[in-house]
Amino acid sequence: MTDTITVPLNKLLAWEGNVRKTDPDKGIDELVASIAAHGLLQSLVVRRDKRGKYAVVAGRRRLLALEALADGGTAAKDLPIPCTVIADSTDAAEISLAENVQREQMHPADEFEAFKALIDGGMPPADVAARFGVTETVVQKRLKLARVSPVLIEAYRNGEMTLQHVVAFAVTDDHDAQERVWNSLSDWRSDDPNAIRQMLTDNKVTARDRRVKFVTLKAYQKAGGTVRRDLFSEGDDGVFIDDGILLETLVAKKLDKAANDVRKEGWKWVEIRTSFDHDEWSDCGRRFPELSPLSPEEQEEMNNLATEADTLSQMDQPNDDQQARLDAIQDRLDEFENRETVWSPETLAIAGAVVTLGHDAKVVIHCGFVRPEDAPPKPRNGKTVTLPDGTVVEATRDAHSAALIESLTAQRSAAISAVLLENPAVAFAATVHALAARVFYNCKSENLALQITARPVSLRKVEESSATLPRPVRGISIYLRSCEGDWPWLYWNRA
Q1: What's the CA gap between 461 and 468, in Å, rounded?
Q2: Are both 22 and 94 inside the same structural domain?
Q3: Last residue of a domain, which of 68, 101, 134?
Q4: CA–CA separation, 43 vs 32, rounded Å?
Q5: pLDDT over 70, % of the chain
Q6: Residue 481 — very low, low, confident or very high, per pLDDT cuts 50/70/90?
């Protein structure tokens, strides 16, 4: 048999046998705010204590919240609290267990839609936060979730997606885009909320973009640029740039300042690029800086040191003083060899520089590109060429006949092939170097030690050459197979 009475707050105490042992005060601030705003909506279940007080069998967290209000002066110490008194013969542990186990939590979708209804009804977010004991950020997050497409919210209610999926969709307010992504997800990606966020932000610029880091987010906003923040992401990943045109303008302006110093170096042209594409410049030649010229005194010193070093290095057993002298000479020769490089006036007259933005969000300058129309003409058919500035380029004649050069080239190719057949590790390294140099460094094939072409090569003319192996040479088969990663796989087939 039970009775409903009111008990002064200071006559209530927590029952020691309560089954909830772990984090009994978790979320207590929200409950304090709720009781302060709406009053106690559910009475406590108590049993009489031998000391003239009442032990709270069900409602311990409500008791803690009421005591917190009393300690803060919001509620009276003897505030009358509605309580249901259970008989001494009732199993209190069973009551406590039933009160905790059978409680059905509100579905999150119902919760954040209820928050939206309060705000749509005119209640400021700050008031909602205060009345429910949460921060304004929590209110804004729940409001953001409530703005996800109703179609997706219904799918969430039906268990077709998780709360993490809803959070991922909240990165945008575009319902059409949200539904389109959800309907296009393959089965193997549907369980990954990150895939949803990636698809919805694929073409969006975040504060992690190197262009933003280069001009700084502060400078972008100072110039009038606006941003959009994802409430559910941390750091730069959650900050999206709204004005891509303004960002590009600021990047170009800042790069132009860096280009002014490059222009003073005397290049024929200087261009600005926010990104550098090697393929764009693949048709250009490339010049490189040269060692700075030595003064007559430095040239004489280097020659004398080189002669002395040759003499010392030819000694069979140099003594300690001689070895020390040889080491000192070598150090000095290294200084000459590693001296500063400069661009020659001839290169500056025909070449240019590209000022761009590197992956580390810093200025990168690529120098020495020679456009095809600026490249000096090469003499042909033994004729001299006069350049526009009056310089005469003499024609050069080959020291050997074309037939001899062809024969020597075939012999050399056969010898290299034979060596590579016996050294697959070296062959593999040389091939990867040739491929990587073309892809990553824009090197011309003629500048590489190993040239890879897609044409058949016959070795029949040199089958009896001493350059080949004793056994018949039938060639090397190279197979390149692309894979899912960024690197090619290469297989050798020794015939």
Answers
A1: 11
A2: yes
A3: 101
A4: 15
A5: 78
A6: very low
